[in-house]
Write a structure and sequence with these properties.
Blueprint: E1 13-15, E2 22-24, E3 34-40, E4 43-44, E5 49-52, E6 58-59, E7 65-66, E8 69-72, E9 84-88, E10 92-93, E11 100-115, E12 124-127, E13 136-138, H1 139-146, E14 155-157, E15 165-171
Parallel strand pairs: 3-8
Antiparallel strand pairs: 1-2, 3-11, 4-10, 5-8, 5-9, 6-7, 9-11, 11-15, 12-13, 12-14, 14-15
Length: 176
Amino acid sequence: MATTNILQYLETTGKSVTTGADVQLGTAPLNRLQVETFLTETAIVRGQVVAVDVSKIATDASGGFSAVTVIAADYNSATVQKIVVGVAQQSVTGTATSPQPVNVVVRGPALVVPVVSAVAVGDPLILDQAGATGSAMSQIAYNAASALLVSEPFAFAMTSTAGAGTVTAYVLGKGI
């Protein structure tokens, strides 16, 4: 799960190692998308916001902690499911006896993120405060309606929707 991005190639052309000719690389080397693989013991749907499953945090061999299991994020859950790590890149169903790997966008563009109300391009996204599992909402709309400043956003909307639906979001990658 540990990923390091120490070096980034920022050129769009390169040299062929066999012929020495110029080669077009496209935008792939410039892509800021970062995906990590976690395990899940539940059903997770593509696009859902996922959080660390704190009930599965375990002590590792070095005496530290490992947080490798995720669950659909839920702001109002009885157990803490608010530590957002990103957005699920595919649908997966795992069980306690057979945890399954799930790819999670931890930084960069994520598609089909479910939102519970209208979202404008550029809106910061937070977990749905009413508790729709794995869903997001506009922090701006919530703060305006409740006169509260609520949680830090995990992403920014790259597309908009006039009501409940899905948006493409840029996940911020906070500390992952």
